[in-house]
Specification:
4-stranded antiparallel β-sheet; about 50% strand; mainly beta
């Protein structure tokens, strides 16, 4: 079976084989192959899912997440997720060697961080990953990446923290709402207005 996602000028397709997972990236017309990636997967996993996030492709395979560079097809991370509902669409990419998700789904009382060890040139998937489960003071309302490898988490009680480290922080009133702002490499965006990361 094949799952296809489109982002900008790229078309990325996930294909599940017998004991393998394959990704293929094409141009928007599907006429030019940009890259192809294939790796071994547990043949007993009933389903696999694909999500695209800020230039990355995230694949969930049961109790495993795989992070792939969307421009080159290189695997950046592979991490096991025991006891966690690790859906590709729920995983937030914080950096080429860190992903995060809120758990359980729709309850959001726990932040789960997956850290990999960067490898030279990212020519192979990180051989070592750690999973850190953080119980939040109250359920999370939203979470966005900061551009520096941290997760900015807004709690249901209105407080804001940077993780890892549970560092309290604040946002300008224009950003501090129930709907998450858009995170970009330059800063946070709300209603077309950019708030650079260097801003208080």
């Amino acid at each position: 079976s094949e799952v296809v996602h489109r982002r900008g000028s790229l078309r990325i397709a996930l294909t599940r084989g017998a004991g393998t997972t394959q990704l293929a990236c094409w141009d928007s017309r599907g006429s030019q192959l940009r890259w192809h990636a294939r790796w071994e997967a547990d043949p007993t996993v009933p389903s696999r899912a694909l999500a695209l996030s800020d230039g990355y492709a995230v694949v969930s395979e049961g109790a495993r997440l795989v992070l792939v560079d969307g421009l080159t097809g290189e695997q950046l991370m592979r991490t096991q997720t025991p006891g966690v509902d690790a859906l590709a669409s729920q995983a937030l990419v914080l950096s080429p060697w860190r992903m995060a998700l809120l758990h359980p789904l729709d309850v959001n009382r726990e932040l789960v961080l997956f850290d990999g060890v960067p490898t030279s040139g990212f020519t192979r998937a990180s051989p070592t990953t750690t999973m850190l489960r953080i119980v939040l003071p109250s359920p999370a309302r939203w979470m966005v990446p900061t551009g520096s490898g941290d997760a900015l988490v807004k709690l249901s009680d209105g407080r804001l923290f940077l993780y890892p480290g549970a560092r309290p922080t604040t946002l300008p009133p224009a950003l501090d709402g129930d709907i998450p702002p858009i995170s970009t490499p330059e800063g946070l965006v709300r209603a077309g207005r950019l708030f650079p990361w260097s801003s208080p």
